[in-house]
């Protein structure tokens, strides 16, 4: 029997942080014409975009804009009414997506009554990670003091850190992270940004974020979404130019100009 928690884990600047442009390897993932309806409500309307190898892309929008729905449709947890998804030029079936995508929802709690150390060790082993990877994540996310505690007893912030560690231990080349900075204070957010950059390696990341200040610090490009539509895509400089804004415009300025 598959539980909702099992399903959720289906393998699917400033202040010193300047986003590093992705290596120009080319198109990696293409989402084409995604549409999703819930009754008469159009949650996604003809959403299309490309992700490039090695980049950190930000899916930017307010609560209710369609960010989580889009990520769940990409992984196949929600069926689309129309649209296709491609990986390096090959259309992916639902069954194939788990080989390439790791989806980290914002409300999952796997093996909630198990100790944090046991959960992390299990994920390290099934993904073939070295012990030093485990130790680096425990150190980088400051998890040492909670390793002996059951996951369900932790605060929201610590739960988020554990979930992020599980995502980074995975081997899939595309990480889809839903609200990875929610529940973190400024120092913790900066710590996570540094860790994501160090663990990016040959991976691509799509981060669903509604905190514009965090997004502006870490993302290479931005996918703006509002009311199920994607009005603009690009770097901050490109988006400012498209919106006719002056140089130095913030992500907030850009988002308000397009929505």
Textual characterization of the structure:
With about 260 residues, the chain is an alpha/beta fold. It folds into two domains: about 160 residues, P-loop containing nucleotide triphosphate hydrolases (Rossmann fold), CATH 3.40.50.300; about 60 residues. The protein is built from nine helices and ten strands. The strands form two sheets. The chain has a six-stranded mixed beta sheet, sandwiched between helices. Strand 7, helix 6 and strand 8 form a beta-alpha-beta unit. Helix 8 packs across helix 9. The protein is globular, with a radius of gyration of 18 Å. The N terminus is likely disordered.
How would you concisely characterize the structure shown here?
By secondary structure, the protein is α/β, with parallel strands linked by helices. It contains 9 helices and 10 strands.
Q: What tags apply to this protein structure?
A:
single chain; 259 residues; alpha/beta; Rossmann fold; 2 domains; 6-stranded mixed β-sheet; 4-stranded antiparallel β-sheet; 10 strands; globular; disordered N terminus
Helical content band: 25-40%
Total beta strand runs: 10
Give the overall form: globular
CATH topology of the largest domain: Rossmann fold
Measured between the Cα atoms of the first and last residue, the distance is 43 Å
Report low-confidence residues grouped into runs of 5 or more.
1-24
Rg: 18 Å
**SSE arrangement, N to C:** HEEEHEEEHHHEHEHEEHH
Strand-helix topology:
Layout: H1 4-8, E1 27-38, E2 41-52, E3 56-60, H2 67-75, E4 82-87, E5 90-91, E6 101-104, H3 116-126, H4 131-140, H5 156-169, E7 174-178, H6 186-200, E8 204-209, H7 212-218, E9 221-226, E10 229-234, H8 236-243, H9 251-258
Parallel strand pairs: 3-8, 3-9, 6-7, 7-8
Antiparallel strand pairs: 1-2, 1-4, 4-5, 9-10
Helix pairs in contact: 3-5, 8-9
């Amino acid at each position: 029997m598959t539980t909702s928690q099992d399903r959720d884990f289906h393998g699917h600047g400033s202040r010193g942080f300047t986003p590093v442009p992705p290596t120009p390897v080319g198109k990696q993932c293409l989402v084409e014409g995604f549409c999703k309806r819930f009754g008469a409500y159009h949650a996604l309307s003809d959403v299309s975009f490309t992700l490039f190898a090695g980049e950190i892309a930000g899916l930017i929008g307010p609560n209710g804009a369609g960010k989580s729905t889009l990520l769940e449709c990409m992984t196949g947890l929600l069926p689309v009414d129309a649209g296709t998804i491609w990986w390096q030029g090959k259309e992916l079936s639902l069954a194939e997506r788990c080989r390439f995508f790791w989806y980290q929802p914002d409300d999952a709690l796997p093996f909630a009554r198990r100790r944090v150390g046991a959960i992390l060790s299990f994920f390290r082993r099934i993904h073939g990670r070295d012990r030093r990877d485990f130790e680096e994540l425990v150190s980088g996310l400051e998890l040492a003091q909670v390793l002996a505690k059951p996951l369900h007893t932790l605060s929201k912030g610590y739960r988020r850190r554990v979930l992020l560690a599980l995502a980074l231990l995975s081997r899939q080349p595309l990480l889809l992270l839903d609200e990875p900075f929610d529940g973190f204070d400024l120092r913790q957010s900066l710590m996570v940004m540094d860790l994501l950059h160090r663990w990016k390696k040959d991976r691509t990341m799509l981060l669903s974020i509604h905190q514009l200040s965090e997004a502006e610090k870490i993302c290479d490009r931005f996918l703006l979404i509002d009311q199920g539509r994607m009005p603009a895509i690009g770097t901050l400089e490109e988006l400012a130019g498209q919106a006719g804004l002056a140089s130095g415009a913030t992500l907030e300025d850009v988002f308000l100009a397009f929505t």
